[in-house]
Input
Amino acid sequence: MAWKHGLLGKINIYTQNFFNFLALFVTNTIQIYIYTSKGPFHMLPNDFRAFRCLMQKVYTKAFGASPLTLNFAESRALSWLIYEKTGELISYKSLINYSKAVHLNHPESLNPSANTLGILAQFVGLEAAEAPVATAPKAILWYHFRKLTFQDNINAV
Output
């Protein structure tokens, strides 16, 4: 009878250790997910310079001048202008956030996807034919615009 009690006790300990491990694993996985999805990742300074240049070109193309920040009506109008030109929709709320980040010089407050930036690059006139691969996804347009911006900065110096 003693061996049966000892065996059950060991199984209990193993089961408890397993569930502790499982709880720790799930907790750490959730923490890692939160860290990577909402964590310290943000736009780098060089990317932010290219992003600022892109947004200024977007504002100039849409409104003829660069506003400080977009209000609700301007962001809705810009969203529809982008949709008409590219066939892709960017949320007016995202455009407001982008303009605030540019105006306040806060690259850490945003991290748009490369596809969204490619849509903006297409809006200002960068065509897929100008990209290294003619049938490129939108993200390639952003990287090509970024490269052109860096080359312009180097040539200006």
